[in-house]
Give the backbone structure.
Amino acid sequence: MPIGDTPAATEAAARAALVRAAGRGATPATAWAPGRATLVGEHVDYAGGVVLCMALDLGIAAAVRRAGAGRFLVTSGGVTVERERAEPEGDMADRVLAPVVALRHRGVEIPFLEAGIAATLPAGAGLASSAALMVAMAAAVLRLTGTSMTSRELAEVALSAERDVLGIPCGPLDQRAVVDTPSGGVLLLDCHTGAAAPLEWPWPEAVVIACDTGAAHDVGGEEYRRRRHETERGLAALGVSTCQELTIAAVNGADLDATVRRRLLHVVGESARAVDAAKAVGSSDLEGLGRLMSASHASLRDLHEVSTPTLDAVAAAAEAVPGCLGARMVGAGFGGTVVALTLRSGAAACRQAMSEACAGGPAFELRPSPGFARLAPDVVRG
Ligand code: GLA
């Protein structure tokens, strides 16, 4: 589906996919959930750090309706799978049906289902497509069954679907951003306390450009797991449960293995940068936010070691364009997307430079969107 289609058009595409795969039948219940782009605060959610992020006008839609007893059908990207159980079986339906399993674990009764999926958000690109899919699917099922939840519960279901059902060791960032981003489009999230503060995007003259390098990112993979483990080892060695309790000086002064020290220096510096980035948004300091985004990339590259030469080249290509204020990799890393903050006057040149730096990967503008809870008061109560 071309980037730029509206949530309503994406929901219509999910319904159409379902009809193509399973024929006409009862009108399905649908839901659309946005992706997210981290502005500053990457690889800190599992260390109890602070993140500044926005929800996107690109997202994923699910359309669901009841199926006959003993039958699940899932259709997505032209592939259709039919099976008897929602629990993972090792095929593409595992991700789509994971929220069904997570909802059942919470005691919500879910019937057998047929589901169609459509997306404007690229998959595996570091823009939280998994969390958007979990939320869209859970919400469509809640609509179908006439059930509602608090936003916290919905984010927990989406997280549990990824962590407990699919075994992906992700932190809480993506699900909270997808669900809880306020109408202003920007969310400051404290991943230790769970507190979330709304912010307005104050710059009509600035845009965020994303370039999908085409190399899939690595949230389920070994390297993400290792970064998380090294970071947690460091926090435990220093006797703290959140990186917010540490300073750079304390990390430098501690007796730590060199790799663990680098990981802690990243999470401590990055979480503090996210707090500064929120201040930059609050005081309309556009250049300050750009500098913090570039500093975030340098830390992810040099200290957390989750960037790649292609991501570095795309970020550097953006930064060289007049009008670009900063650029960084986004999401888990080891592939995925680079985002750049640029004045609108430099946006076209920035898109071109980023795309050329990764053999023509698509570059597009990201616009802030409210999170799912703001879009769906019938499903999310309170
Ligand atoms: C992935 C994970 C998140 C977070 C980011 C990195 O998107 O799902 O929990 O750790 O990577 O900030």
The mean pLDDT is 95. The pocket of alpha-D-galactopyranose is lined by residues 38, 42-43, 45-46, 128, 170-171, 173-174, 219, 331-332 (CB under 6 Å). The longest strand covers residues 50-66.
